Amino acid sequence: MTDCKWDFSGKVALVTGGSRGIGRACVQQLARAGAEVIFTYASHEQAAYELVEECYRNGSAKITAIRANFREQADRERLAERIAQQSHLHFLIHNAGLLSDAPLYKMTDTQWEEVLQVNLDSFFGIAKAAIRPLSRSQGSIVSVASVAGMAGGIGQVNYSAAKAGMIGFTKALAREVGGLGIRVNAVAPGYVETEMVSAIPEEKKKKRYAANALKRIGQADEIAAAILFLLSEQASFITAQVLVADGGLL
Protein backbone atom coordinates (compact mmCIF):
# COMPACT_ATOMS: atom_id res chain seq x y z
CA MET A 1 0.00 0.00 0.00
CA THR A 2 1.50 3.30 -1.08
CA ASP A 3 1.79 6.28 1.24
CA CYS A 4 -0.83 8.98 0.69
CA LYS A 5 0.53 12.28 -0.67
CA TRP A 6 -2.61 14.34 -0.10
CA ASP A 7 -4.06 16.25 2.83
CA PHE A 8 -7.85 16.10 2.73
CA SER A 9 -8.44 17.08 6.34
CA GLY A 10 -11.90 18.60 6.79
CA LYS A 11 -13.13 17.15 3.48
CA VAL A 12 -16.10 14.80 3.11
CA ALA A 13 -15.97 12.12 0.42
CA LEU A 14 -18.55 9.65 -0.88
CA VAL A 15 -17.31 6.49 -2.59
CA THR A 16 -19.79 4.14 -4.24
CA GLY A 17 -18.80 0.49 -4.30
CA GLY A 18 -16.26 1.07 -1.56
CA SER A 19 -15.98 -2.29 0.18
CA ARG A 20 -13.72 -4.03 -2.36
CA GLY A 21 -11.20 -3.45 -5.12
CA ILE A 22 -10.57 0.08 -6.39
CA GLY A 23 -13.30 1.52 -4.19
CA ARG A 24 -11.75 0.00 -1.07
CA ALA A 25 -8.34 1.41 -2.00
CA CYS A 26 -9.95 4.85 -2.44
CA VAL A 27 -11.56 4.64 1.00
CA GLN A 28 -8.26 3.64 2.58
CA GLN A 29 -6.28 6.40 0.89
CA LEU A 30 -8.89 9.08 1.57
CA ALA A 31 -9.03 8.06 5.23
CA ARG A 32 -5.25 8.20 5.52
CA ALA A 33 -5.38 11.68 3.95
CA GLY A 34 -7.69 12.82 6.75
CA ALA A 35 -11.02 12.88 4.93
CA GLU A 36 -14.35 11.85 6.40
CA VAL A 37 -15.47 8.99 4.16
CA ILE A 38 -18.92 7.60 3.42
CA PHE A 39 -18.94 4.52 1.23
CA THR A 40 -21.58 2.20 -0.16
CA TYR A 41 -21.57 -1.56 -0.55
CA ALA A 42 -24.12 -3.86 -2.17
CA SER A 43 -23.83 -7.26 -0.49
CA HIS A 44 -20.36 -7.73 1.01
CA GLU A 45 -21.28 -6.67 4.53
CA GLN A 46 -18.33 -8.42 6.17
CA ALA A 47 -15.85 -6.71 3.84
CA ALA A 48 -17.48 -3.34 4.59
CA TYR A 49 -17.33 -3.99 8.35
CA GLU A 50 -13.67 -5.02 8.14
CA LEU A 51 -12.82 -1.89 6.17
CA VAL A 52 -14.48 0.37 8.76
CA GLU A 53 -12.61 -1.44 11.56
CA GLU A 54 -9.31 -1.15 9.68
CA CYS A 55 -9.77 2.60 9.24
CA TYR A 56 -10.60 2.99 12.93
CA ARG A 57 -7.47 1.06 13.91
CA ASN A 58 -5.42 3.36 11.69
CA GLY A 59 -6.77 6.43 13.44
CA SER A 60 -9.57 7.40 11.03
CA ALA A 61 -12.70 7.86 13.14
CA LYS A 62 -15.06 9.26 10.51
CA ILE A 63 -15.93 6.29 8.32
CA THR A 64 -19.51 5.32 7.47
CA ALA A 65 -20.69 2.32 5.45
CA ILE A 66 -24.12 2.38 3.77
CA ARG A 67 -25.74 -0.65 2.16
CA ALA A 68 -27.07 0.26 -1.30
CA ASN A 69 -27.83 -2.26 -4.03
CA PHE A 70 -27.82 -0.24 -7.26
CA ARG A 71 -29.83 -2.93 -9.04
CA GLU A 72 -32.75 -1.67 -6.96
CA GLN A 73 -34.30 1.68 -7.88
CA ALA A 74 -35.48 2.19 -4.29
CA ASP A 75 -31.88 1.91 -3.03
CA ARG A 76 -30.65 4.33 -5.68
CA GLU A 77 -33.35 6.81 -4.71
CA ARG A 78 -32.69 6.48 -0.97
CA LEU A 79 -28.99 7.15 -1.47
CA ALA A 80 -29.70 10.13 -3.73
CA GLU A 81 -31.99 11.59 -1.07
CA ARG A 82 -29.32 11.17 1.58
CA ILE A 83 -26.70 12.83 -0.62
CA ALA A 84 -28.98 15.78 -1.37
CA GLN A 85 -29.35 16.34 2.39
CA GLN A 86 -25.59 16.43 3.02
CA SER A 87 -24.62 19.81 4.42
CA HIS A 88 -21.00 19.15 3.41
CA LEU A 89 -19.73 17.10 0.49
CA HIS A 90 -16.44 17.76 -1.27
CA PHE A 91 -15.74 14.62 -3.31
CA LEU A 92 -17.83 12.05 -5.16
CA ILE A 93 -16.17 8.94 -6.54
CA HIS A 94 -18.56 6.79 -8.52
CA ASN A 95 -16.91 3.39 -8.55
CA ALA A 96 -19.82 0.95 -8.19
CA GLY A 97 -19.76 -1.49 -11.07
CA LEU A 98 -21.02 -4.82 -12.33
CA LEU A 99 -19.85 -7.27 -14.98
CA SER A 100 -22.20 -9.77 -16.59
CA ASP A 101 -20.45 -10.91 -19.75
CA ALA A 102 -21.89 -12.82 -22.68
CA PRO A 103 -21.83 -12.61 -26.47
CA LEU A 104 -24.63 -10.35 -27.65
CA TYR A 105 -26.63 -13.23 -29.16
CA LYS A 106 -26.66 -14.94 -25.75
CA MET A 107 -27.05 -11.84 -23.56
CA THR A 108 -30.32 -11.64 -21.69
CA ASP A 109 -32.37 -8.52 -21.09
CA THR A 110 -31.57 -8.88 -17.39
CA GLN A 111 -27.82 -8.92 -18.05
CA TRP A 112 -28.12 -5.78 -20.15
CA GLU A 113 -30.41 -3.94 -17.73
CA GLU A 114 -28.54 -4.76 -14.51
CA VAL A 115 -25.16 -3.68 -15.86
CA LEU A 116 -26.62 -0.39 -17.09
CA GLN A 117 -28.44 0.13 -13.77
CA VAL A 118 -25.39 -0.44 -11.57
CA ASN A 119 -22.80 1.36 -13.70
CA LEU A 120 -24.69 4.18 -15.41
CA ASP A 121 -28.20 4.72 -14.05
CA SER A 122 -26.87 5.01 -10.50
CA PHE A 123 -24.37 7.65 -11.64
CA PHE A 124 -27.24 9.75 -12.99
CA GLY A 125 -29.14 9.78 -9.69
CA ILE A 126 -26.14 10.17 -7.41
CA ALA A 127 -24.45 12.93 -9.42
CA LYS A 128 -27.74 14.81 -9.78
CA ALA A 129 -28.26 14.73 -6.02
CA ALA A 130 -24.65 15.74 -5.34
CA ILE A 131 -24.62 18.94 -7.44
CA ARG A 132 -26.04 21.22 -4.76
CA PRO A 133 -23.74 20.12 -1.88
CA LEU A 134 -20.74 20.01 -4.25
CA SER A 135 -21.52 23.54 -5.51
CA ARG A 136 -21.32 24.79 -1.92
CA SER A 137 -17.85 23.28 -1.49
CA GLN A 138 -16.73 23.73 -5.12
CA GLY A 139 -15.96 20.05 -5.03
CA SER A 140 -14.97 17.37 -7.48
CA ILE A 141 -16.43 14.24 -9.08
CA VAL A 142 -14.43 11.31 -10.43
CA SER A 143 -16.15 8.44 -12.20
CA VAL A 144 -14.41 5.10 -12.58
CA ALA A 145 -14.93 4.20 -16.21
CA SER A 146 -12.92 1.57 -18.10
CA VAL A 147 -10.87 1.10 -21.23
CA ALA A 148 -13.79 -1.10 -22.31
CA GLY A 149 -15.77 2.10 -22.70
CA MET A 150 -13.15 3.45 -25.09
CA ALA A 151 -12.07 0.40 -27.11
CA GLY A 152 -14.93 -2.05 -26.48
CA GLY A 153 -14.67 -5.49 -24.94
CA ILE A 154 -15.60 -8.77 -26.59
CA GLY A 155 -18.60 -10.23 -24.82
CA GLN A 156 -19.11 -6.93 -23.03
CA VAL A 157 -21.52 -4.86 -25.08
CA ASN A 158 -23.46 -4.07 -21.90
CA TYR A 159 -20.40 -3.14 -19.82
CA SER A 160 -18.72 -1.27 -22.71
CA ALA A 161 -21.91 0.70 -23.41
CA ALA A 162 -22.31 1.58 -19.72
CA LYS A 163 -18.70 2.73 -19.36
CA ALA A 164 -18.81 4.70 -22.63
CA GLY A 165 -21.97 6.31 -21.30
CA MET A 166 -20.16 7.23 -18.09
CA ILE A 167 -17.42 8.91 -20.10
CA GLY A 168 -19.92 10.94 -22.13
CA PHE A 169 -21.83 11.77 -18.95
CA THR A 170 -18.61 12.94 -17.28
CA LYS A 171 -17.64 15.24 -20.13
CA ALA A 172 -21.12 16.74 -20.51
CA LEU A 173 -21.57 17.27 -16.78
CA ALA A 174 -18.17 18.94 -16.51
CA ARG A 175 -19.32 21.55 -19.03
CA GLU A 176 -22.61 22.07 -17.19
CA VAL A 177 -21.20 22.58 -13.70
CA GLY A 178 -17.81 24.15 -14.36
CA GLY A 179 -19.31 27.57 -13.68
CA LEU A 180 -20.25 26.36 -10.20
CA GLY A 181 -16.62 25.51 -9.50
CA ILE A 182 -17.21 21.75 -9.72
CA ARG A 183 -14.70 19.65 -11.63
CA VAL A 184 -15.76 16.34 -13.20
CA ASN A 185 -13.28 13.79 -14.52
CA ALA A 186 -13.02 10.07 -15.15
CA VAL A 187 -10.35 7.43 -14.67
CA ALA A 188 -10.32 4.54 -17.16
CA PRO A 189 -8.45 1.57 -15.70
CA GLY A 190 -7.23 -1.39 -17.68
CA TYR A 191 -6.80 -4.78 -16.04
CA VAL A 192 -6.52 -4.34 -12.29
CA GLU A 193 -6.11 -7.00 -9.58
CA THR A 194 -9.67 -7.12 -8.25
CA GLU A 195 -12.26 -9.83 -7.65
CA MET A 196 -14.01 -8.75 -10.85
CA VAL A 197 -10.91 -9.45 -12.97
CA SER A 198 -10.01 -12.61 -11.03
CA ALA A 199 -13.09 -14.28 -12.57
CA ILE A 200 -11.44 -14.13 -16.04
CA PRO A 201 -9.82 -17.49 -16.98
CA GLU A 202 -6.06 -17.50 -16.35
CA GLU A 203 -5.03 -18.15 -19.97
CA LYS A 204 -7.22 -15.31 -21.19
CA LYS A 205 -5.68 -12.98 -18.59
CA LYS A 206 -2.13 -13.91 -19.65
CA LYS A 207 -2.88 -13.02 -23.27
CA ARG A 208 -4.29 -9.68 -22.21
CA TYR A 209 -1.31 -8.87 -20.00
CA ALA A 210 1.02 -9.69 -22.91
CA ALA A 211 -0.69 -6.89 -24.86
CA ASN A 212 0.02 -4.43 -22.04
CA ALA A 213 3.13 -2.24 -22.47
CA LEU A 214 4.13 -2.80 -18.83
CA LYS A 215 3.47 -6.56 -19.07
CA ARG A 216 1.72 -6.71 -15.71
CA ILE A 217 -1.61 -6.23 -14.07
CA GLY A 218 -2.40 -2.98 -12.29
CA GLN A 219 -3.07 -2.68 -8.57
CA ALA A 220 -6.10 -1.05 -6.97
CA ASP A 221 -3.83 1.32 -5.02
CA GLU A 222 -2.38 2.64 -8.29
CA ILE A 223 -5.83 3.50 -9.63
CA ALA A 224 -6.87 5.05 -6.32
CA ALA A 225 -3.77 7.26 -6.40
CA ALA A 226 -4.79 8.55 -9.84
CA ILE A 227 -8.29 9.26 -8.55
CA LEU A 228 -7.00 11.15 -5.51
CA PHE A 229 -4.76 13.22 -7.79
CA LEU A 230 -7.82 14.30 -9.80
CA LEU A 231 -9.63 15.22 -6.57
CA SER A 232 -6.70 17.25 -5.29
CA GLU A 233 -5.81 20.91 -5.72
CA GLN A 234 -2.89 19.81 -7.90
CA ALA A 235 -5.54 19.02 -10.54
CA SER A 236 -7.41 22.30 -10.06
CA PHE A 237 -7.40 23.18 -13.79
CA ILE A 238 -8.30 19.69 -15.00
CA THR A 239 -11.91 18.90 -15.86
CA ALA A 240 -13.86 16.97 -18.53
CA GLN A 241 -10.90 14.60 -18.92
CA VAL A 242 -10.41 10.83 -18.95
CA LEU A 243 -7.19 9.70 -17.29
CA VAL A 244 -6.34 6.31 -18.77
CA ALA A 245 -4.53 4.11 -16.25
CA ASP A 246 -4.05 0.89 -18.18
CA GLY A 247 -0.31 0.20 -18.24
CA GLY A 248 -0.22 1.01 -21.95
CA LEU A 249 -2.93 -1.48 -22.97
CA LEU A 250 -4.65 0.85 -25.44
TrEMBL record:
<comment type="similarity">
    <text>Belongs to the short-chain dehydrogenases/reductases (SDR) family.</text>
</comment>
<dbReference type="Pfam" id="PF13561">
    <property type="entry name" value="adh_short_C2"/>
</dbReference>
<dbReference type="InterPro" id="IPR002347">
    <property type="entry name" value="SDR_fam"/>
</dbReference>
<dbReference type="InterPro" id="IPR057326">
    <property type="entry name" value="KR_dom"/>
</dbReference>
<dbReference type="GO" id="GO:0032787">
    <property type="term" value="P:monocarboxylic acid metabolic process"/>
</dbReference>
<feature type="domain" description="Ketoreductase">
    <location>
        <begin position="11"/>
        <end position="190"/>
    </location>
</feature>
<keyword id="KW-0560">Oxidoreductase</keyword>
<dbReference type="InterPro" id="IPR020904">
    <property type="entry name" value="Sc_DH/Rdtase_CS"/>
</dbReference>
<dbReference type="InterPro" id="IPR050259">
    <property type="entry name" value="SDR"/>
</dbReference>
<protein>
    <submittedName>
        <fullName>NAD(P)-dependent dehydrogenase (Short-subunit alcohol dehydrogenase family)</fullName>
    </submittedName>
</protein>
<dbReference type="GO" id="GO:0016491">
    <property type="term" value="F:oxidoreductase activity"/>
</dbReference>
<dbReference type="InterPro" id="IPR036291">
    <property type="entry name" value="NAD(P)-bd_dom_sf"/>
</dbReference>
